[in-house]
Design a protein that fits this description.
Number of strands: 2
Distance between the termini: 34 Å
Radius of gyration: 14 Å
Largest sheet: 2 strands, antiparallel
Structural class: mainly alpha
Helix content: 40-55%
Number of helices: 5
Strand content: under 5%
Order of helices and strands: EEHHHHH
Oligomer: single chain
Length: 103
């Protein structure tokens, strides 16, 4: 299954990254992208990658209340929900969502 359409990354590639024994292990979606030498573009894949991290037992144990990655995911979900309510089908770049999360 394709997880990231912008970078054409599938679930198997992400699971392969999570299976490699390394120190430190990727604990956020951003760290998974860094391991794959790319970066998120629109950000729609971040919740899926975060779920995969949780399933693999590799997700950050600190919690989303203090985690910048958690704030990014929440900001993206807020933007997507606003789009859905307004009936818009726009794609926001990850950098745009980052600006919202940093506020």
């Amino acid at each position: 299954m394709i997880v990231c359409h912008c970078n054409v990354i599938n679930d198997r590639q992400i699971r392969d990254v999570l299976a490699i024994e390394r120190t430190p292990r990727p604990r956020t979606a951003g760290q998974v992208y860094k391991c794959m030498n790319c970066r998120p573009e629109c950000g729609r894949c971040l919740p899926t990658i975060q779920r995969m991290l949780v399933e693999h037992g590799a997700a950050c144990q600190v919690g989303c209340a203090v985690c910048p990655a958690g704030a990014m995911i929440e900001a993206l979900q807020d933007v997507q929900e606003a789009q859905r309510i307004e009936g818009r089908d726009e794609t926001y770049r990850f950098d745009d969502v980052y600006a919202v999360a940093a506020e």
